[in-house]
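Thread: Newbie trying to understand structure tokens

Hi all, I'm a second-year student working on a class project, and my supervisor (Dr. K.) asked me to get a predicted structure for one chain before our next meeting. I've only ever worked with sequences, so writing a 3D structure as a token string is new to me. If someone could post the tokens and maybe explain what I'm looking at, I'd be very grateful. Here's the chain:
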Amino acid sequence: MEEQGQAGKKAEGDKQPPGDQNGSGPNGGQPARSIAERLFSTGTRGAQRFADLSGLDQAIESAVEEAIVRAIESEATEKAIARVINGPVIEQAVSEAMASDSVEKAILEALDSKMTERIWDHLLDGPLTQQLIERIAEAPEVRAAIAAQGIGLIGDIGQQVSVVTKALDFIGEKVSRRLLFRSERAVPTNRAGLFTRALGIGIDAIIVNLSLITFAAVFGAIASGLDLGDPGNQSGLIAVGGLLWFIVSTMYLFIFWSLSGQTPGMRFLDIRIEADGDPHIGPRRAGRRVLGFWFSAAILGLGFIGTLIRLDRRGLHDKFGGTAVYFIDPAKPDQPREEPVLDGVPAD
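---
Reply by user tm_fold:
Sure, no problem. This is what the structure looks like when written as tokens:
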């Protein structure tokens, strides 16, 4: 009976389909696919073959590429990139990078390297650097800046000297009025006194004399080169030189007074001639003032005493020309008069 049962099970096992043993199919043990999978696979391969034959895949790739290019070149993309660049993100990233110790170390190592030294040596020794320096030095802006710096320095010196002479004007006035038994000043003034004016005219005299000496030296060299012989009477030459000095000095004062109300010496000390509040006194007033100036000098300088003892600080030449001399503030627009004071010593 047992033998018959085992034979029956063996016969039933022989009846199983070939593909169902151990879940494997007939093709090398691969599992059998369902109908849906086989249909989908077949459709995909067909679509791929259709796309290859019709060129549809190339058209899709071209369209996608064109769309990407247009998106990148569009104005919206440019605006977006600009917003990112100008936004705080980039700035913060750069700030963090510059604050990084590693970045600082890398920069210092690059600057200390021998390659950097060779680059600097090459640049400094090259002709382009020399040309650049020459162009910068010859630039009108640079020359104007240097000239302005020099003028500014001279102006600063003149202001400091003017402070001293202004104090001397008040001290000299106070002493002279006491000696003459006159009352002291009770009204403030902004007019220049004797010491400031004397220094201004002294600077102008130096300018005129240096000009004449230079002219005489050049004329003497020319005469010596041309071998003009003995110049003759020395006293005659002295007389001609004195007359020339008088003419040049007169024209010097007349031109500067009539055009700007200031000679270079007066400008150095920040003082100015005015007539009825106008610094342009004109040729007529300037001519009368020059005549009064030489007349005051001819009477042993007595015409200038008024600038020392009078409260209005006007000399005889000021009365002739109808003028007065004021301290001005060159740092302000239009260079207005300074505020009147009772004491020439500046406050601390």
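A couple of things are worth pointing out once you decode it. The chain is about 70% helix and 0% strand. The longest strand covers residues 271-274. Feel free to ask follow-ups in this thread.
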